[in-house]
Amino acid sequence: MATVIVSTSLQFTEEESREFVKVIGDAAVKAFRLPETLRDVYLYPIPECCNTPHEGGQITFFIYTAPGKPVEYKRDMVQGIQKTVDDFFKGRKVNTVVIIKEHPDENVGAGGVLRLDANAGK
């Protein structure tokens, strides 16, 4: 699973938002070699008054995933996100930061069940 939270000073139309979420999700599952269904992407544009100005705009990606991904997957994630941003903005310079946060099963719960406990029954 990969959960991608995108915080940005750039503003998107509704159509651009949908497309950006899709292409970022595609890049995430490709980099981490995951099935397409194992991704969630959330895009949060921050109003201009509420962020530090950056020439060209700023996008920060927080990627949450289970531990144990090889470094080449993480490298692919950082490179894939950058390529996707570059392709989406067609050569416009956008400052991009990617933060990968791994979390063990003891630190994640879904539906009221700690993932550690859910996986113990398998």
Number of helices: 3
From the spread of the alpha carbons, the general shape counts as: globular
Overall pLDDT level: 92
Number of strand segments: 6
Rg over CA atoms:
16 Å
The biggest sheet amounts to: 4 strands, mixed
Please identify the structural class as seen in this structure.
alpha/beta
Report strand order across the widest sheet.
2-1-3-4
* Helix/strand order, N-terminal first: EHEEHEEEH
Distance between the termini: 17 Å
Strand content: 25-35%
Helix share bin: 25-40%
Outline of the structure:
This protein is an alpha/beta fold. It has helices at 14-31, 71-88, 115-120, and strands at 2-8, 39-45, 58-65, 95-102, 109-110, 113-114.
List the defining traits of the structure above.
four-stranded mixed β-sheet, two-stranded antiparallel sheet, 6 strands, 28% strand
Structure description:
This protein has 122 residues and is an alpha/beta fold. 34% of the residues lie in helices and 28% in strands. It is built from three helices and six strands; from the N terminus they run βαββαβββα. The chain has helices at residues 14-31, 71-88, 115-120; strands spanning 2-8, 39-45, 58-65, 95-102, 109-110, 113-114. The strands form two sheets. Strands 2-1-3-4 form a four-stranded mixed sheet, covered by helices on one side. β5 and β6 (113-114) form a beta hairpin. α1 (14-31) packs antiparallel against α2 (71-88). It is globular, with a radius of gyration of 16 Å. The two termini are 17 Å apart. The mean pLDDT is 92.
